[in-house]
């Protein structure tokens, strides 16, 4: 992903996506989101068409906003996480 868009902007977007994806309280969602971000940036690494690069950057920005919204709402933690702090499990 190069071309007209500054490399710093793309790198900043990548870091923001990884950081926000790491905020998912659920382990499975967190790992899936991080894996998807890494895979999509790796797949689009060699894009040279300016229109395609802009389209992918816009798509990544939309996904960043979606991830922020999803992480904002509290989700119920798994029962196994509660058991780890239980006196009998220590």
From TrEMBL:
Coiled coil: none annotated. This is Complex 1 LYR protein domain-containing protein. Residues 8-66 form the Complex 1 LYR protein domain. It comes from the Eukaryota. One of its GO terms (biological process) is iron-sulfur cluster assembly. PANTHER family: LYR MOTIF-CONTAINING PROTEIN 4, PROTEIN C6ORF149. GO terms for cellular component: L-cysteine desulfurase complex; mitochondrion. InterPro entries: Complex1_LYR_dom, Complex1_LYR_LYRM4, ISC_assembly_LYR. Belongs to the complex I LYR family.
